[in-house]
Structure formats: C-alpha cells, structure tokens
Amino acid sequence: MQTIEWLIAGGADVNVATENMNTPLMVASAFGHLECANKLIEAGAQVNKCNIFGWKALHFAVHGGYADIVIALFKAGARDSLAIHSTNPDNTNPKSKTAQEMAVDVGRDDVIRVFDIYLTKIPAYEREIKKKTILEKKNSFHHSKG
To answer: Distance between CA 61 and CA 77 in Å, rounded?
Structure first.
C-alpha cells in the first residue's frame, strides 16, 4: 500500500499498462487488494479500460470473487459491457462474457447480489430520485410564477 501511495505522490501514471494492456487497477482487482484499488481510483485510474482480451477491472474482481472490489468499481462508474472491439484484432473469442455473465458462471452468489443491486435496484432508485427532483422543480417554478 505504501508503494502505491509513494508512486502516486511521485506522479506515476495510474493508467500505465503492460503489453497485454493490464493496468494497476486490474492487477489490484485480480488479487483482491481493495485499499490499493481505492487509492488508484482516487488518483484517476480508468475503471472502464479494457485489456487486449476485453477484460476490465470488473472482470478481474468478479473472477477472483471480490465483491467488495466490485462494489468499489461500480461506485466509481464501472460499466459491465462486453468489449467487442478490444485492442487485440485477433480477439474473436465467442466465449467472451460480460462480468455479470462471468459471475453467474463462477457461481459467486455474493458477487451476483452486487450486480443485482447495482444494475437494477440502484438505477431504479436513482431514476425515482431524478423524477422527484424534476417534479419538485416544476412545482416550485409554477408556484413562483403565480
């Protein structure tokens, strides 16, 4: 953890990538290092960056069964989409999966619950809040005109 903090303080690029385009956030997610993942996110790590195989940090966290990292990634704006056009032109793997599909295949109930919350309940709740805010603004506008 201290090494990450030291590198960030020294101006290291938190989105630097390996030959396969794996980023430090992907590595932290793959090995369950929540504190490191959070520090990288705070420092501007791109949560939706893909490697040459179309995997994002979300895929690595799901594959490792790290529900806490999946939550952190969703809170930071991670999207569960399939990278059809990865940076590897030879990536025509028909078995490519979204992170949610991977969670089901791996059978991680704790991770699947996180997807249920962040992909269904949270967006629905946020839509309701937005509707309520819009209605309140409309009502206050009509009352101020009268």
So the answer is: 15
